[in-house]
Amino acid sequence: MEVIRLEGVHKTYSDNGVPVHALRGIDLRIEKGAFVVIAGPSGSGKTTLLNVMGALDAPTQGRVFLESEDISLKSKDAIAAIRLEKLGFVFQAYNLIPVLTAMENVEFTMMLMGIDQQKRRERAMEVLGELDIEELANKRPNEMSGGQQQRVAVARAIVTNPSIILADEPTANLDSETGANLLDLMQRMNREHGLTFIFSSHDQQVIERARRLILLRDGMIEKDEILEP
Prior knowledge:
The chain has a single domain, classed as Rossmann fold (3-Layer(aba) Sandwich), CATH 3.40.50.300. The protein is built from seven helices and ten strands. The protein has helices at 46-53, 76-86, 102-112, 117-130, 146-158, 176-193, 204-207; strands spanning 2-15, 18-31, 35-39, 61-66, 69-70, 87-90, 164-168, 197-200, 212-217, 220-226. Helix 3 (102-112) crosses helix 4.
């Protein structure tokens, strides 16, 4: 089943009045349960493409469909609701809320969705346990290592069972062993729960895990390859 489709997507920015064509006519379909890596040189459009798929950025031209629903022209409120309910994000800089514990960070999206406190606490503990970090439940980000913070970020991204998890350079601030452990975890979530992961990365160990590799250059798809699992 298709979870996301892009049709003729362009994204143009203005840099001091000079147009910058970050994406140039992207056509792309991604199936449910995919483990996709978007790679390419710096400035190729990787992060822009991820942001468009995650409804963090609107295309200048073209359409984006999430589970067959055209989200390109929706209102800001509707887009915010879609991000909340259907999309999970893992960022390079973790983006945890510093004053909240791991438990509270993982609960945060569910709180915004209006889920009952007891239910969201139970679900948060379930996910922390599944990721083997339940001992971090009452720790704040400044009491955790980078790898622990990123695991909490993954827990927060998957806790609501989103349609897609978008991960922008998730291993960039981690040493190679910690990054490998994080990727093991994401692969397990993909395999056991059918979660759809889309990465933007130039990290070779991320690229080597891809079941589908999309190479960008100058805002265009240079290569789109299905790999052996």
